[in-house]
From TrEMBL:
GO terms for molecular function: ATP binding; hydroxymethylpyrimidine kinase activity; phosphomethylpyrimidine kinase activity. It catalyses: 4-amino-5-hydroxymethyl-2-methylpyrimidine + ATP = 4-amino-2-methyl-5-(phosphooxymethyl)pyrimidine + ADP + H(+); 4-amino-2-methyl-5-(phosphooxymethyl)pyrimidine + ATP = 4-amino-2-methyl-5-(diphosphooxymethyl)pyrimidine + ADP. This is Hydroxymethylpyrimidine/phosphomethylpyrimidine kinase. Keywords: ATP-binding, Kinase, Nucleotide-binding, Thiamine biosynthesis, Transferase. Pfam families: Phos_pyr_kin. Pathway: Cofactor biosynthesis; thiamine diphosphate biosynthesis; 4-amino-2-methyl-5-diphosphomethylpyrimidine from 5-amino-1-(5-phospho-D-ribosyl)imidazole: step 3/3. Gene3D superfamilies: 3.40.1190.20. One of its GO terms (biological process) is thiamine biosynthetic process.
Length: 273
C-alpha cells in the first residue's frame, strides 16, 4: 500500500467513555456513529457497565493507569483529530483525562453524562464540581441535556428563555460552545447552540417512541465526527441534529425497555439491497 503523503485518508475520532454491554450507548454508540459518518473510531474505556435496555446492573471503573495508557497508546501511534468524553464516573478519572487532554492538546467535545435513562448514576455527585472546574474549561463543545444543564449552570430551566440563561452560565465556565439538548422537554425537542455571541435554536419534531437509549452519546459523537471531518462547530451541530433525528426515527425496536436507535440509517437508505 502506498503511503499518503497528505496525511491520513480518513479523519480520526477518539471516544473516552464507558462501555455499554447492550450496545446502544457509551463507547459502542460512539464507535458506531463514527463508522456511520465515515470516521475512523478509537476508544479509551473508563468504566465497564453491565447494562441492557432495561437498565444498568453493575459498574466497574477502570484504573487510572489503564485509562491513561489507552489514550497515550493511540496518541503515540494513530493520532486523533477530535476527541469526546462520555461517562467519566469519578473525580479521579476526570482529573486523569483532563491531564491527558492537556498533554496531547486534544480538541474536545464533552458530553457531561450524569445519569442513565433508567435512573442509574454514571457520575458520582462529588465529581460534578471537578467536571465544572477542570474539564469544561478544556472543551470546545459541551452538550448537556436539560437536567445536566441545570446542574452545571445552577439555573432552573422551564423554557427557551431559561435554556438561554443556563447556556450563558455554562459558557462562563470556559467551554467555547454550549449545546443544550431539548430531548427531556415536554414540548418539541429543540436544542440550543451558544458560542458566546449567537444563540441558534435547532428545532425538530418529537418522535413518539420509547427507543431513545443512547441519544445523547450518539448526538455528541456525531458532532465529534463532523468536526473531525473539518466542518465548523455550528455546521457540525446542525448536521448532528439531522443525523440523530433520523437515527431515532429508524430505531429498530430492540429489547424490552428503552431500545437503541439506528446508527446506520443513512447507510441503510443508500445500501438497501
Ligand atoms: N423523542 C425524540 N424525538 C426527536 N428528537 C429527540 C427525541 N428525544 C431526544 N431527541 C434529540 O436527541 C438528542 C439527544 O437529546 P437527549 O435525549 O436530551 O440527550 P440525553 O440522551 O443525553 O438525555 C437531542 O438532539 C434531542 O433533541
Ligand atoms: C456506558 C454508558 N455511557 C453513557 C450512558 C448514557 O447515555 P445517553 O446517551 O445519555 O443515553 P441514556 O442512557 O440516557 O439513554 C449510558 N447509559 N451508558
Amino acid at each position: 500500500m502506498t503511503e499518503n503523503l497528505q496525511g491520513p485518508a480518513i479523519a480520526r475520532a477518539l471516544t473516552i467513555a464507558g462501555s455499554d454491554s447492550g450496545g446502544g450507548a457509551g463507547i459502542q454508540a460512539d464507535l458506531k456513529t463514527f463508522a456511520a459518518l465515515g470516521v475512523y473510531g478509537i476508544s479509551a474505556i473508563t468504566a465497564i457497565t453491565a447494562q441492557n435496555t432495561l437498565g444498568v446492573r453493575a459498574i466497574q471503573e477502570q484504573s487510572i493507569p489503564i485509562i491513561e495508557a489507552q489514550i497515550d497508546a493511540v496518541m503515540e501511534d494513530i493520532g486523533v483529530d477530535v476527541a469526546k468524553t462520555g461517562m467519566l464516573s469519578s473525580s479521579e478519572i476526570i482529573n486523569a483525562v483532563a491531564r491527558r487532554v492537556q498533554h496531547w492538546q486534544l480538541r474536545l467535545v464533552v458530553d457531561p453524562v450524569m445519569v442513565a435513562k433508567g435512573g442509574s448514576t454514571l457520575l458520582q455527585s462529588e465529581a460534578i464540581e471537578t467536571l465544572r472546574t477542570v474539564l469544561l474549561p478544556l472543551a470546545e463543545v459541551v452538550t448537556p441535556n436539560l437536567p445536566e444543564a441545570e446542574v452545571l449552570s445552577l439555573v432552573k430551566i422551564a423554557d427557551m428563555a431559561g435554556m438561554k440563561v443556563a447556556a450563558q452560565a455554562i459558557y462562563a465556565l470556559g467551554p467555547r460552545h454550549v449545546v443544550i439538548k431539548g430531548g427531556h422537554s415536554e414540548d418539541q425537542p429543540t436544542d440550543l447552540y451558544f458560542d458566546g455571541q449567537q444563540f441558534i435554536e435547532l428545532p425538530a419534531k418529537r418522535i413518539n417512541t420509547r427507543h431513545t437509549h443512547g441519544t445523547g452519546c450518539t448526538f455528541s459523537a456525531a458532532i465529534t465526527a463532523f468536526l473531525a471531518r473539518g466542518w465548523s462547530v455550528e455546521e457540525a451541530v446542525r448536521r448532528a441534529k439531522v443525523y440523530i433525528t433520523g437515527a431515532i426515527q429508524h430505531a429498530p425496536g430492540i429489547g424490552q425497555g428503552h431500545g437503541p436507535i439506528d446508527h446506520f440509517w443513512l447507510w441503510d437508505q443508500t445500501h438497501n439491497e
